[in-house]
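README, section 4: Worked example with a bound small molecule

Sections 1 through 3 covered apo chains. Here we extend the same pipeline to holo records, where the ligand is supplied as SMILES alongside the sequence. The molecule in this example is zinc ion. Nothing else about the input changes; the structure line simply encodes the ligand pose together with the chain.
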Amino acid sequence: MKPEKIRYQNIEEQFPQLLQCGLEVNEGWLPLIWDMCEQLLASREAINIPISKENPLHFVQIKEKFGTLRAYAVTSTEEDEKIISMFEDMSQFICDVCGDPGKIRGKHWVYTACDAHTKPSDK
Ligand SMILES: [Zn+2]
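The generated complex, written as structure tokens:
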């Protein structure tokens, strides 16, 4: 079950087979990562390709870069890749501090934030 407030540990416990790396992102993106993992598993079930040695699926790095989510995975299916890039795209509209709607901010240091979490110098 999805907790109301998702913490790093929740995701690691819920999706141990997918997460073989740390989560190098702020807490605001944890619901996004939770949904991405859930959708990946649902998609694998729908196309009937279980995760296996021949058809692997696990993340090797999940981090923020230039304001958006980067989730690097070892995978063998196109569906997995489509889902991952869809969530990477969505991250540019979600504040990585609180999870509220946001957008890309900053001139030199680029990040994604809601109004409240935008630095005064970037407003
Ligand atoms: Zn925020």
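What to look for in the output: The two ends are 38 Å apart (CA to CA). The longest strand covers residues 57-65.

Section 5 describes how to batch many such records.
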